[in-house]
Structure formats: C-alpha cells, structure tokens
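Supplementary Note 3. Input sequence used for the single-chain structure prediction.
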Amino acid sequence: MKKIDTLAISFTMDHETYEKTRELSVYGVVKDNIEKVVNFGIKVVLFDMINKDTLPHIEETTEFARSLGVKLHIFSVTEQSRLGYETIDWDDQRPENLYTEMEKVKRKWELNIIF
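The predicted structure, written as discrete structure tokens, is reproduced below.
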C-alpha cells in the first residue's frame, strides 16, 4: 500500500445501478474499502459516469466524496449506461439539462467535483 500514489475508483452512490452495471453485489464492500483506503492515507480520486440512472444521485455521490476529502471526477455524460442495457430517452432528459444540473452541483460543491 505504501507504494501506491493515487487510487482512481469508479463509484456512484446509486447502489442499484452500481451493482447492475458490474453484475456483482459489491457496492457495500467497495464503499467500505474506499473509506478504509482514505483513512489509511492513500490519495483517492472517485470517478462517476453520468446517465439517467446516476444523475439523481450526483449530490449524494458528491457529498460522499466531500466527506472523505477526495475529488469526484465526472468522466462521461452518456446516452447509455455502462453495459448498454438501457438508453436514455433524450426527449425526457436532453443533454443540456444534464449539464445544467451538473453545473448547479458544481457551484454548490465547488472544487469537490470536476468534469
């Protein structure tokens, strides 16, 4: 562990989507391990992919990152979730609305969120 500089971990506070996209029941283990690694003193950067499933949880994910003192990097705004099992209906949620919502969150949380 002492040789690790930074861990980059894909994580969202959306429990259901997290496990569905990974096809594993690992949400609790991953969340606990993120907290343990941070407490151990390893630098962590969290990544989240924004889609219609994760967008409603962006504030919760950002709060989790903030509570740990780590950055949250939004690496993708996508029409499809990770495995392509569900496509966004852009008539319901247009791309500019995603960016508008993300900008609101970014203003609120300042430097804790990057995209």
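The helical segments are 15-22, 27-40, 58-68, 95-109. Confidence is low (pLDDT under 50) at residues 80-88.
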